[in-house]
Amino acid sequence: MTIQYTDKPIPHPALWGIIYRSSTPFWEGIKEKKLLIQKCKDCGKILHPPRPMCPGCHSTECEHIEASGKGTIYSYTTYSKSPHKSFKAPYSVVLVELDEGPRLISNMVDVKPEDIEIGMPVEVAFDKIDDDLTLYKFKKAG
Amino acid sequence: MARKILEEYMNRKYDADIKPKPALNMIKDKTAIVGIGETKFTRGSGRDEMDMACEAIKKAADDAGIKLEDIDGLETFTLDRTAMPFIVSTLGLKNLRFASEVSFGGGAACAVTLHAAAIVATGVAKNVVCYRSLNESSGHKFGRGDGYAKYMLTAPTPHYGYTFPMGFCTPLSWAGAWGRRWMHEFNVSYEQIGWWAVVLREYANKNPLALFHNKPMTHEDYMNVQMIVEPLRLFDCCVDTDGACAHIVTTAERAKDLKQKPVYILGAGQSAPIEQEIQTVYNRPTIAGLFETWYAAHEAYRVAGVEGKDIDVAELYDPYSLGGIMSLEECDFCERGDAGNFIEGGDNIRVDGKMPTNTSGGLLSEAYIHGFNLVNEGVRQLRGTSYNQVKDPELCMVTAGPGVPSSAMVLRN
Fold first, then answer.
1. Which candidate, B264, B263, B323, places its Cα nearest to that of B294?
2. Where residue A6 falls among pLDDT bands split at 50, 70, 90?
3. What domain range includes position B235?
4. Peptide bond preceding A49 in cis form (omega within 30 of 0)
5. In what order do the strands lie in the sheet with B242-251?
6. Which residues of B does the annotation mark as catalytic?
7. Is the ipTM of this complex over 0.85?
């Protein structure tokens, strides 16, 4: 099962890229179906969520690497009641640990809530919602 | 750096070397809570937050035996729908010289008192009122996704952009994700976590202030109630409440001449450890614990010069059961990963148990006033006037919201 949307707009911040400029490359990458992860150019530390300075070496030079899209489920939770008019319950939210290290909140594609397990190998799948919004989802790997 | 902080956290060794010496801490034992007040807790007040705030403040002043015009400082939370100028004009405060608000929702619950104590200890103001007034039940609900989504336009936290579009937009689900991981790593069962709600309801049933007074709930009732966000059920959620709480902080010296037995602020601290976000704190080395609570609690212990084993009664911030349960570990009341076993059957957290906890019914069964009802209950315990009185407690631990920049304090009688 995949998360079901209603005809109401999905909440996403109108000010992305304006008040939170560090997030722009990540979301521009998603539009092109790439998972771009910020990396410190000086010490090589992976930085997620993106930020203007490396907390390890305080460099402001960064680059973006394309993640493999592979990872495992680190945790998950399932809504029995919908918390928001845009989403139809029941649905699950998963926390995926990418092979590169960062953890991303997402949804599973074609997996029922009761079949989700911690440790399940997954890989990224992209979901174009509308012209302004593409989201990264995950499917069972292999 | 991250590794060092993880080691500090995992090994439970709070590194005191780089922190200011407790002897230099000017609030330690120098200030006291001298008055407490609260409105009736309801599911629909029919009043506005300013009205309720004024009532709670007046009651706290009466309780302390000080005149309202002697109040010269106001301290509250942000995300607040009271207006300080209105409160000043309504209460007739003539000498206000300090006013401030602390951010981070429930994480501010002890920070508000800490800031008041710092202001009093340094002589900026004499009598500071700390207050929180909420129409959480009939007005804005912090626990609902729609409410949070409205904040997206001004983005108080940039990180919500990574979670909201996935339908991940309520505090209960944010807790569900770290709670699930904690349950997985430490093999904690649904049955075990149920005891938290059951024992708190027992306390509430004896507390006439509580919203769930005279409303019994058994462990079987708990297991049969619907899941809201797995692994959390309806009875794991705090109770949306309309109401207000206030307490007054003054110097330890002045406190001796007032009406009530003073409750001293022995130590307090705030925290915002690595990879801090507003509740979506999933990029830390581990999420099977509450970093903020551990750091704030240990800073409060360090300043106070006490340890977890010295505490007699605890009022732990439980916006959902797991917040309180996992705090038992973070405050050193049990071993890491053992809180499920610790609360099983409920005896350890009952009034004559190893660590009586949330003795008013807590945020689950007394009221949800962003943790301020926990402070008032801590004061009652140390005065000896709780409806679920622990025998002769000397020290009370109070904590604040987990997952956000948080705070904690140790109170002494």
1. B323
2. confident
3. 168-239+283-401
4. yes
5. B98-102, B73-77, B128-135, B242-251, B31-38, B263-271, B406-412, B395-399, B313-315
6. 317, 368
7. yes
Domain definitions of chain A by residue range = 15-66, 68-142
CA angle, B282 then B283 then B284, to 5°: 95
Q: For B258-273, give the DSSP string.
A: SSSPPEEEEEEEEE--
CATH of domain A68-142: 2.40.50.140
Q: Which pLDDT tens digit goes with each residue over B223-233?
A: 999 999 999 99
Own/partner long-range contacts of B273-276 (Cβ < 8 Å, ≥24 apart): B273/B5, B273/B9, B274/A55, B274/B1, B274/B2, B274/B5, B275/B2, B276/B404, B276/B405
What does the alpha-carbon distance between residue A1 and residue A78 come to, in Å, rounded to a whole number?
A: 12
Report how far apart, in Å, the C-alpha atoms of A66 and of each of A39, B139, B236 are.
10, 45, 40
Contacts of B162 in chain A (CB under 8 A): 49, 104-105
- State the average pLDDT for chain B: 94
Is A12 within 8 Å of B165 when comparing Cβ atoms? yes
User: Does the bond joining B231 to the residue before it have cis omega, within 30 degrees of 0?
Assistant: yes
Q: How far apart are the first and last CA of chain A?
A: 18
Domain count, chain B: 2
Same-domain check for residues B35 and B73: yes
Is 70 exceeded by the pLDDT of residue A117? yes
Tokens of A112: 């029922």
CA angle B190, B193, B197 (to 5 degrees): 125
Q: Do A100 and A128 contact (CB within 8 A), yes or no?
A: no
B319 and B207 both lie in a single domain: yes
Question: Cβ contacts (< 8 Å) between B167 and chain A: which residues?
Answer: 3, 79, 82-84, 86-87, 91, 93, 107
* Residue-level pLDDT at A30: 92
B238 near B143, Cβ under 8 Å? yes
pLDDT at B355: 98
Q: Does residue B234 share a domain with residue B133? A: no
| Residue A142, min C-alpha distance to chain B (Å) | 23
Taking the CB of residue B24, how many other CB atoms lie within 10 A of it?
Answer: 8
Give the minimum alpha-carbon distance from B129 to chain A in angstroms, rounded to a whole number: 35
